[in-house]
Every structure is written in C-alpha cells, then in structure tokens.
Amino acid sequence: NYLVEALQAYKNAINLSPEDESLKWYEIQILLKINQNSILQKIESLQTKNNNPYSLLDLEIDIIYQTLDKQNWQGVINLGRQYIKKYVDSQNIGYIDDVHYAMGIACKNLKKLSAAINHFLLAQKINSQNLLCRQELLLTYLDLQDFESIQKELNKKDAKFAKLNKDTILYYQVICDCHFNPKDKNLIKKLQEVLQLFENDQLIMTLL
Q1: Residue 27 near residue 9, CB atoms below 8 Å
Q2: How many Å apart are CA 137 and CA 178, to the nearest integer?
Q3: CA–CA dist 129, 161 (Å, integer)
Q4: How far apart are CA 68 and CA 98, in angstroms?
Q5: Distance between CA atoms of 98 and 61, rounded to whole angstroms?
Q6: What pLDDT, on a 0 to 100 scale, did the predictor assign at position 20?
Q7: How far apart are the C-alpha atoms of 186 and 97, rounded to whole Å?
Q8: Is 39 left (phi over 0), alpha (psi -120 to 50) or beta?
Q9: Nearest Cα residue to 120 out of 95, 138, 142
Q10: Fewer CB atoms inside 10 A, N or C side of the chain?
Q11: What is the pLDDT of residue 101?
C-alpha cells in the first residue's frame, strides 16, 4: 500500500530531522487517509491548556507555529498553503487568519515583502481585531518606504480594527509627516518627543 510506504518514509524523515516540525503535518495527513477515526480519537484525547477538547485544527495550527518558531520560513509557507487549500471551502475554517499571519511573517523574513503584506491584509480582513497583524503591516510598509500605506493604516479609526497604542501612532505619524510635510515648523519638536519615547531609534535619529 503506497500510503503505508509513504507513512514509513515520513517517520524515517522525522527520525533523521526531528527539528523539522513541518514533517509532522504530512505524517498526520497520511494517517488521516489510512485510519481517520483512529487518529481523530487520538487527537481529541489530548487536552488544550484550557482543558478544552483538542481538535485536528488545533494540532495543525500548532505544527505551523512550531515550524515558525524554528524559523523554517519556507516550511511555514508550504504548510500554510496546504492548510488554506484544505479548509478554504469549509464551514469550519478554523485559524485561517492566524495562518495568513504566520505566512506573512515567513514571507517577510524571506524578503518577500509584497507577499507578506498580502498575507497580513488577508488576515486583517478575516479578523480585523488582530493587533499583531496591524503592527506587522506598519513595519512592512516602513521597510518598503510606502508612506501612503502607513498613513492609510493610521487613518483607520473604525472600532472594528484593533486599536494601536498612542506611542505607536505618534511614531509612524511623525515619519509620515517628515515625508509629506517636511517644512512643518513643528517637525523637529515632534521628532524629539518621539525620540524620548523610542530612545536610540536609528530612523528617528536620522530624521532629526
């Protein structure tokens, strides 16, 4: 049976590379095809930290984030694609916003900044209350020196979006002001105030 052979191959690969969390994903998918009820019962017998039943969705997202923690960026992207493909048409889409966020982080570390932004925006569209997503969007726009998009993100005042803290808004706003209003007579004072909040920030010091 090719599934049994494939399963053994992944088990051997896991033994050789135990640090590669992404291999566990493929092992689980094969196990599901061989004996779905058995593996689902085993997964559900586990407990989350809150003592809630552990699901296949929980296990799969854990593997993706363990792969992210190991900085296996391409592995995160590959697993994310598999996850989205598997659940995109399902009523139970699980953690697709978290998957897009993880893929965005991976793309960013691979210097694929446009792809990273796309994933962060998709995550934000699914869950507009994801604060980490907004923060990463701003950081990535800054890497691209896309000041218009930074300003657009700062202008999102709708309560449906995760609220940025005041210091974060001041930081990015003064950067935008330097780009859009370089002759503002209060600009130096604003930069000095922000530098007090973010000591030794190289970008703010350069703008000063």
Answers
A1: no
A2: 20
A3: 5
A4: 12
A5: 8
A6: 74
A7: 40
A8: alpha
A9: 138
A10: N
A11: 95
Q: Is the dihedral of CA 76, 93, 25, 21 positive or negative?
A: positive
43 forms beta bridges with: none
CB count within 10 Å of CB 94 equals 17
**Dihedral, CA of residue 84, residue 89, residue 95 and residue 96, to nearest 10:** 50
Name beta bridge partners: 47: 53
Q: How is residue 77 written in tokens?
A: 């992207």
Handedness of CA 53, 56, 58, 63 (dihedral sign): positive
| Tokens matching residue 56 | 């296949």
Nearest to 172 by CA among 193, 157, 194: 194
CA atoms within 13 A on the CB side of 93: 14
Would you write out the chain's pLDDT as a tens digit for each of its 208 residues? 666 677 677 677 767 777 776 677 677 777 666 665 555 555 555 554 455 555 677 777 887 888 888 898 998 898 888 888 877 776 656 688 999 999 999 999 999 999 999 999 999 998 899 899 999 999 999 999 999 999 999 998 888 888 999 999 999 999 999 999 988 889 999 999 999 999 888 999 999 8
Please list the alpha-helical segments (H only) found in the chain. Answer: 2-16, 22-44, 56-69, 73-87, 96-109, 113-126, 131-143, 147-154, 166-180, 187-197, 202-207
Q: Which two tokens stand for residue 58?
A: 């929980």
The number of residues making up the chain comes to 208
